[in-house]
Amino acid sequence: MEQKNWMELLAGQALSKQVYDTNQYTEKYGLALTKADTELLVAERTQTLKEERRVEFGQSILPKIIYVFCDSEYISQSDYTDTLVRLQEIFYS
């Protein structure tokens, strides 16, 4: 079993809350994330950073991606989470 350090856990929890809080803005575009969605996005972020051998200092790019793309007519609720995962992967690649 992989053991995470407490700083990584706290950072993940803080990011999950920050991403979940974007719902207040994105709901007017018909898009919202569940708690499970936010946890998935944070886990995918961590995995992508490891795969790409990258580190991220400061704030995560994920909330910024959400705010920039939430008004896109090409994103719907049914593919919202998958689209965010893919956009995040593209950013870190």
Q: List low-pLDDT spans.
A: none
Task: Name the quaternary structure.
Answer: single chain
The helical percent reads 55-70%
Order of helices and strands: HHHHH
**Using DSSP, what is the number of strands?**
0
What coarse outline follows from CA principal-axis ratios?
Answer: globular
Mean pLDDT: 88
How many helices does DSSP assign? 5
Q: Which class of secondary structure composition applies to the elements?
A: mainly alpha
The biggest sheet amounts to:
none
Number of domains: 1
Distance between the termini: 27 Å
Radius of gyration: 13 Å
Strand % is under 5%
Structure description:
- Helix 1 crosses helix 3 (35-51).
- The chain has 93 residues and is mostly helical.
- It is globular and about 35 Å long.
- The model has no long low-confidence stretch (mean pLDDT 88).
- The chain has one domain (6-92).
- It has helices spanning 6-21, 23-26, 35-51, 62-69, 80-92.
- It has five helices and no strands.
- The termini are far apart.
Task: Give a quick summary of the entry.
With 93 residues, the chain is mainly alpha-helical.
